[in-house]
Fold this protein.
Amino acid sequence: MGFGDLKSPTGLKVLNDFLADKSYIEGYVPSQADVAVFDAISGAPSADLCHALRWYNHIKSFQKVKTSLPGLKKALGHYGPAGVEDTTGGAADDDDDDIDLFGSDEEEEESEEAKRIAEERVAAYNAKKSKKPTLIAKSSILLDVKPWDDETDMAKMEECVRTIQMDGLVWAVASKLVPVGYGIRKLQIGCVVEDDKVGTDQLEEAITAFEDYVQSVDVAAFNKI
Amino acid sequence: MALKELSSLEKFLGLKKPNKYSTQGDRKVPVLQSNSGPGVVGLVTIATHLTLEAKKPDLLGSSAEERAVVQQWLEYRVTRLDGCAKEDIRTILKDLNTYLEDKVYLAGNHISIADPLMYYGLHHIIMDLAVHEKEKYLNVTRWFDHMQHYPSVRHHLPPVVVLRNRVYTSGHH
């Protein structure tokens, strides 16, 4: 919470918007909250910030009794719209993102922390990855992709199949067109997969998704490497 | 309607003993029955009378100027607000909105008897306003919301929701 820098025009504008539908900073009676914000402002807001001006003049009339107003005077960061930092007395820094559940005073520290953690994680992952290759189980799969009829553009079909990208899937460079009968040819294409990451069902699903070209997919051969 | 309003007003003023009211005429002008002589007739007259009875003359205005403003708004209530036509509503809201732009209360810097009376009079209008209209007459909405939360004003009337579409949310999510 907070209004940004109350000594700057942007902060005053935040205050103005906040007070557009409120008579007081907090609740429905003048309180120490109003006193706190009143004291933070250097002078009367300009006439175009009509709500802030209205509030300012109103609170000014309570100057004699300001110590007896209810409530506790808290730091400016406790008042105002959520998602805005209080930067009065420091550099102006407006943040108009969504609500920050943890309070925007901690935001800057959090992002430093977050960065550090992310860096650590990346380093750990890299370390892990460099060890991995020796332990991965791989298989070589030969797939038969059958078209609807002999009119089907096999080159296009192969292109579609090759567009299927998955983590752990590598298509073989060569592929064959094997005649089946009645002029129909099936595409025989091989690939190398990491067992943990890709399953034959996933592959089949992905290939049969190209319904225009592919009638069915079969696993012709499956060898462990 | 006027009778409920008057009893709410009594509570607002802190009057312990409720008075007896009746109405007269087809416009249902309220009459305060008194033991001595003819009753007090008319909403404004009764309201003023009650305020003095409750020994809260400040509510009528603390300076001559304030007193005049309070009277102005009491008169406004009875002459222009009560029984107004649909077309007039826009004008009334516009006038009020401009007036309330730099004021928290209708008269001066503290509540007066004009505020609850205008609140009661406006309630049925504000209740029927659409959200974008409430935004249009933002000052009226702000003052209205303030009034309905002011201790001991609301009583018999249901609260009207005034939620504003804001750029900066205030935790209502």
Remarks:
- Residues 68 and 171 of chain B are 41 Å apart (CA to CA).
- Chain B touches chain A through 22 residues (CB under 8 Å).
- Residues 166-173 of chain B have pLDDT under 50 and may be disordered.
